[in-house]
Amino acid sequence: MSTIPDLASLHALGPAQQPTYPDRAAVDKAVAKLRTMPPLVFAGECDDLTSKIAAVARGEAFMLQGGDCAETFEGVTADNVRNKLRVLLQMAVVLTYAASVPVVKVGRLAGQYAKPRSSDLETRDGVTLPAYRGDAVNGFEFTPEARVPNPQRLVDVYHASASTLNLVRAFVTGGYADLRQVHTWNTDFVRSSPVGQQYEQLAGEIERALTFMKAIGADPDEFHRVDFHSSHEALVLEYEHAMTRIDSRTDLPYDVSGHFVWIGERTRQLSGAHVELLSHIRNPIGVKLGPTTTPDDAIALAQRLNPDNTAGRLTFITRFGAGKIRDGLPHLIEKVTASGLEVAWICDPMHGNTFEASSGYKTRRFDDVIEEVQGFFDVHRALGTWPGGVHVELTGDDVTECVGGGEELTDMDLSSRYESVCDPRLNRVQSLELSFLVAEMLRQA
Ligand code: PEP
Ligand code: MN
């Protein structure tokens, strides 16, 4: 299937979760501009990631996918990008070293700007306005001007993603991600925490191993750079369609807005526009599967999205909730596996565990997050299948958005540094704690 369906035919499918733009001409102008922009990623890089995810599907690697629920244009700063990358590198090192498994590193980064919402509208103090749908669509500020969907923002997404990706590429190949830097990633507040101390010890062991390797004359390229990939939810059709191009090497379509794109829980309708568009692209892709997913739904999605049954092409990202995963997941995995379908299974322990705290903030309990990952590992172990990875919302900063963890954040702490414009993220200490706990689960898997 080397064709790209046209945008009008996608709209004819009645896509869910799309912005209602007031000015069609402005949309056409933004889309025309995007079509002229160079790709953000190279198709060959997407193929490399597919091969890596194939190793995940075979049980030979583990995938770490993480970043903001919603990136913001304001958040595109050197510090912010570095902090997110740094916590992901620390987590990856913990997982790789403590569990001796290769880790495929994927950021919810450089493109994660559009959000599905449960309601089109938001009401505050009797005033009703369009809901915030991410910086790709409208502004977070609660004013009529900010909340009008503005298609120029799609062009801004492109530029914000390009700046972010450029910095990430510089960091991961230019020395920052060098393994000899493991100690220096452990800076400021995290260093003094108990988990920071635990990390310090592990970093010391890695450093000794590296010194030994160097002494015997081994200093491979892998010590000095890492492979890092971008990903986001493919949600706004105008953007994803404009960024879908025919690769000159293979004559096949790729969505060159990111290495990996996924379909969200709210847009995975089998005959919907998102499934249709992503069925045509060659990138590795994901689909979120919530607790209402039947085995037949999952099988039909796999057949539609990966008709050749290519390993690494399709990742199922389950997000059941801590209380539902042990009952709901086994049936799904069993039927999909029995059908002979090649999929990588990843656990999103965030989206089934969101609730409103007494203080009014949207939050998640660290213990629920861990309990869902533990349930995921236990289910896979019982079935003899491979728990392929985790998909988490996190930030490199010291925010107070999720309760619990070693710092024992409470409802009352949430107001002190709640910065997410959408879902609550694990902070840097909580993220590192999660990586040690997951490493332990992996060691036993
Ligand atoms: C998300 O990943 O931020 C999200 C909205 O997830 P889901 O589609 O699983 O609800
Ligand atoms: Mn989210």
TrEMBL record:
Coiled coil: none annotated. One of its GO terms (biological process) is aromatic amino acid family biosynthetic process. Its EC number is 2.5.1.54. Pfam families: DAHP_synth_2. InterPro entries: Aldolase_TIM, DAHP_synth_2. Keywords: Transferase. GO terms for molecular function: 3-deoxy-7-phosphoheptulonate synthase activity. PANTHER family: PHOSPHO-2-DEHYDRO-3-DEOXYHEPTONATE ALDOLASE, PHOSPHO-2-DEHYDRO-3-DEOXYHEPTONATE ALDOLASE 1, 2. Belongs to the class-II DAHP synthase family. This is 3-deoxy-7-phosphoheptulonate synthase.
